[in-house]
Amino acid sequence: MDNQLDMKVLRAIHILSTSGSVTKAAEILQVTPGAVSYLINKARKSTGSALFFRTRSGMKPNTLALELSQRYQSINQDYNVDGSAFSPGGRAIVLSTPSILELLLTITLLNNENEQTQLAFCRPSDTDSERLARLRNKEIDIDIGSRLPVDNSIIQLKLFSCDVGILVRKGHTTITPPFTLDDWHQNRHAIWSRGMHFISDDIAQTQHFRALFEKQDIAFVASSSLNLITLCAFSNLVILVPTTIGKKTLNILPVQLLDAPPELQMRYEGYLHYHHSFSSDHYFQQLLIRLQTFLQS
Predict the structure, then answer these.
(1) Element housing 247 (H / E)
(2) Is 161 within 8 Å of 269 (Cβ atoms)?
(3) Which whole-number Å values give the CA distances from 63 to 55, 140, 201, in the listed order?
(4) 161-268 sits in which CATH class?
(5) Residues facing 188 on adjacent strands
(6) What PANTHER family does UniProt report for this protein, alphabetically (predicted)?
(7) Which of 94, 129, 269, 277 is deepest in the core (most CB within 10 A)?
């Protein structure tokens, strides 16, 4: 249905209606022609209408496309863009991130009375190729997670780098600091279905870690990182977490973060990705600084 179309799709319809060319629309939107076609096809599936037809003078909008273009203009007139697509009063910034980070960021924003950023969180993609496609097509504005493969249209920003820690509930019935390899073998574990991509420069250490990781007595595989950590807080299950994330959960859940024994010591790097067309957007860049400050504090 056309009432399900978001601002990105409406804007693509409007720009194509006025420019008459997918190539020109792509230049204006600072995306690839393929990304424009993707958004238009998304609108076609939603509306059940062709929306545009080819002529010798270019792409011409049908009646519905013109109505949607007018809708975009009407909505856009109410925005306080102030030179930025994301200023207060403008559209929300669409952010894809693990659910535990969604919770932590939301709590931080709610506790800041001066914060006016509008964030719209969405479910993370299952694969790196899907993550890249959503960034290229501007379905999402920011992707936070493990590092993605290099792409000329996507900018990567390292948010944090930290050790891997052990998260267990407070008052765990069998574990007391320090956490040992015996604790690792004698307790049951929970893992995140998407994985955490722990790394090390030491090949032997990486191989040793993988061998121990594969020998876990896994009781639960969570599709959500928030569910994973919440389950840990209310059971005797053990999980591995980046210490940057683990430390921030201590104030909201009854958990304790323990150092990993030498055999399990690894690193995790968290990256933020966004489309290169936002690199000169002042408001967007200020948000990136705030996100980086939050995760490094």
Answers:
(1) helix 243-249
(2) yes
(3) 16, 28, 59
(4) alpha beta
(5) 217
(6) HTH-TYPE TRANSCRIPTIONAL REGULATOR LEUO-RELATED, TRANSCRIPTIONAL REGULATOR LYSR FAMILY
(7) 94
Does this chain's domain 93-159+270-296 share its CATH topology with 161-268?
A: yes
**Per-domain residue ranges for the chain?**
2-77, 93-159+270-296, 161-268
| Structure token pair of residue 265 | 């010591």
Question: 127 and 148 in contact (C-beta within 8 Å)?
Answer: no
Pick from 104, 211, 217, 229: which is nearest to 167 by CA?
229
Say if residue 178 is preceded by a cis peptide, omega within 30 of 0. yes
Question: Three-class SS of residue 126?
Answer: coil
Give the predicted TM-score (pTM) of the model: 0.74
Residuewise pLDDT in 10s, the chain (297 residues)? 445 678 888 888 988 988 888 988 888 787 889 999 999 999 999 999 999 999 888 899 999 999 898 887 777 655 444 445 555 446 788 999 999 999 999 898 888 766 677 888 998 888 999 999 999 888 899 999 999 999 988 999 999 999 999 999 999 999 999 999 999 999 999 999 988 899 999 999 999 999 999 999 999 999 999 999 999 999 999 999 999 999 999 999 999 999 999 999 999 999 999 998 888 787 888 888 888 888 877
Q: Residue 193's CB: how many other CB atoms inside 10 A?
A: 11
The rounded distance, in Å, linking the Cα atoms of 287 and 144 is 13
Alpha helices in 95-127 (DSSP H): 99-110
d(CA 137, CA 273) in angstroms, rounded, equals 13
* Tokens describing residue 108: 């931080």
